[in-house]
Amino acid sequence: MNLKQKKALARILITIALLILCGFLSPDGLLRLAAYLGIYLIIGGNILLKAFRSICRGRVFTEAFLMSVATIGAFVLAILTKSGDYFEAIAVMLFFQIGELFESWAVGKSRRNISQLMDIRPDTVHLETEKGLETMPSEEIAVGSILQVHPGERVPIDGEVVEGASSLNTAALTGESLPRDVRPGDLVQSGTVNLSGLLRIRTTVPFSESTASRVLALVENATARKSRSEHFIARFARVYTPLVCWLALALAIIPPFLSLLFTGTADFLSWLYRALTFLVISCPCALVISVPLTFFAAIGGASRAGVLVKGSNYLEALAKAGCVAFDKTGTLTQGVFKVQAVHPVGISGEDLLKYAAHAECSSSHPIARSLQTAYGQEICRADVQNIREESGYGVFATVHGKKVAVGNGRLMETMGLTPIVSRETGTVCHVAVDEQYAGFIVIADEIKPTSKAAIEQLYRLNVNKTVLLTGDRPENAQSVSKELDVSHTEAGLLPEDKVKQLEKLLSEKRKGETVLFVGDGINDAPVLTRADVGIAMGGVGSDAAIEAADVVLMQDDPLQIPKAIRMARRCMAIVYQNIVFSLAVKLLCLLLSALGIAHMALAIFADVGVMVLAVINATRALKINT
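Structure (tokenized):
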């Protein structure tokens, strides 16, 4: 409990104690007024001050203003009627303060949960220096430094294991509790926990660009992007609050004057009491507090499950998913390619692999890595010059003095060569040496084990269309599409073609639905940006993809996609529940107040009670039941 909450609790407890004391002593007359007025100032002084400051800043119609007017009015009413019943004014302010304290506690709980969840970035590291092992601030560590991570400690900065073997707990990043074994040569991410052996790690990125730092930045910046529901509530409150103030004033003046005009008598005090009750009931705190709190809690809960949502606006759009488009390689398939067949023309198969592997030696693409693995020998970079990549086609390079081109059939055709058509399933890399066709290599990829289940779950979530957008050959794309039951496939696409296809999907979508695109590569960045919601698969796969995406999945698991949609829909269900419940109760109580049926006790429930119930409901978004 922070200092502000402690002060609020102290005010509440002192007020209750003084009310009990006054009940025993039963003071009369001016002494009674002075005693209750003192209690009122203890419990409501900060609200009166808050209302005054808001008025000075030009913001008149606030919750503090409504409470101040209503409770001061109740005091004046008790004085005018000489009833000595000052308890109602104090009770309204007391319960309002209890509601405020509860709201502060709930928001604090959400923030603490998220803070604990995101407490994944160590502030210090164990740095190996010439003097020995030194403890240094994480932000001062240069790329290429050697760090030691002891058992039980978090990896502070992304790097490569140079010595040691251990298991890492990745739950803080991915939500996956299954440990991951690492050994020399493996890359490790900051924020993961070393469970067993000592690891020596060479850092590969600056501290500010490590996985933990980027995850923290994504979550911290998420609250800046408001959803349409939040904007609606803010606009609603700006119109609603002054409206109910004027209605309360009208309720206090018009009915008694009409009564005086037609009957010759008027009970001004009775109508003033109704107006004051009307003001207490009308306070919009339940909506203003609970809706943003729901989104805040949902973003935190999703982060804990390894789904980073960059703003509540994307959470709302995610809940309306009607069409999901996918990249193929690395998204629905493993992205782990293996050379299945080598078909040389005019040269040996070994030479064909050598030229292809050397030409692709500077690329980290899975196809390039598969060629290098199949070649099986160390590649001397000095033997390769003039590397030039043509996006969507392939790569050119000079290998041992020979001009080599490696890519798809379109690349061969641009060179005036006729590639051989392969009947084998897989990705085909055609190779040309000194502008002569030298053959092709067939590389196969595997579908991820959870891809089919993910597609099935999307259909069960009433996603009416799934689409595969890939640059791979049509036969490969159709094979994957058929196995996964994807409803539509477009193959052989360049990055700009994917954008055009997505534009078509956007133009065909149903009203109130959104189009999602899921990808993992640099070439997916343009289409991720264009989609209603762009989802980057695999968290730290591509900087460009993460920057362009609206949602980042920390696991390379397609099942995270329906999981993210379910979490978003659960969040929106809670938002709508709070909106409907709050408005329904308030409208009913406002009507009863205007008719003189509702009294201040009901007003307190309609304000504080509804707010407390809405806040409790909002905190359910922290829990992950998907």
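The longest helix spans residues 228-263. Residues 338-444 form a domain with the Calcium-transporting ATPase, cytoplasmic domain N fold (CATH 3.40.1110.10).
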